[in-house]
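Minimal example, chain plus NAP.
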Amino acid sequence: MSSISSKTKVYSVIGHPVSQSFSPKIHNYLFEKYGIDAVYVSYDVDPDHVGEAINGIRHLGIMGTNVTIPHKIEVMKYLDEIDEKAKLFGAVNTIKNVDGKLYGYNTDGTGLTKSLKDASGETMDGKKVLIIGAGGACRSIAIQLAIENAASIEIVNRSIEKAQSIVDTINEHFDTKAIATSKVITQKDIDDVDVLINTTPIGMGTDESPIDTSLVPPKNMIIADAVYKPHETAFIKWGLKHDLKIAYGIQMLINQGVHSFSIWTGVTPTLEDTQNILKIFLEEQKENK
Ligand code: NAP
């Protein structure tokens, strides 16, 4: 970003609102690190003008765009081709512009599973998974876990219909055995679980936990929280107290960005890159306190 010229390529994120997005920090770090003449900016797009914004991306030659809330579903109708996985997720978070043709992808699920693998050194093959919450984040995470051959996935949500719809997609397309429930999680429910994931907003800016923190997890359990503000949620603190392997919400965010970067540039960033980006995030949090 040090010398912008007429050759500098533009990448972006669209959302509404978008000023809080950490994505510019992720991508501008990576462009500089890999000597790519490009800059990443954010655009706040009104929900009534998503089609015009996508046409702008096409005709201004914006090379790639991340899509965040609330546009991940709406953008799909304006794209030329959508990757099979993004179709199953029912949402696009990454657009690649190849000579005016727009391709849609979704890296939210791999963002979380990469974080789980980095935290544990284990694959998700054969794992028994319990996911709390059944919104957009759960959908991409649960389907990605099925793609990676998890043995079973239970989705617990206060409204069972949303969980059931994700479970139906998994049972229709994969060998993973999925079930939907709506219940208060008890000790018995977690005794046999390998991976426990929170995909509700519970804990965002509060000290609430999505499960009863007096429960005792199995000692090899891996946990992940989609919430990343604060960095150490009450759920993460519970995991720390029991010495579990932990994937933080910010790692999911960084890894989905890193995967988008690979789709756009063909470059695969290193674990050291993600650790450096995490440091930038933690510094920023300290300054904003
Ligand atoms: P969403 O589509 O609105 O879904 C939220 C889910 O949480 C729904 O299933 C909802 O239940 C449940 N829920 C919400 N409040 C609840 C409460 N008080 N008690 C019990 N359940 C509750 O949201 P999303 O897009 O999936 O995002 C969920 C969270 O993940 C947000 O905090 C978001 O910021 C975070 N996220 C993080 C990343 C990352 O990269 N780290 C990526 C995506 C999302 P109902 O179905 O009953 O309404």
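The longest strand covers residues 9-15. The chain is about 40% helix and 20% strand.
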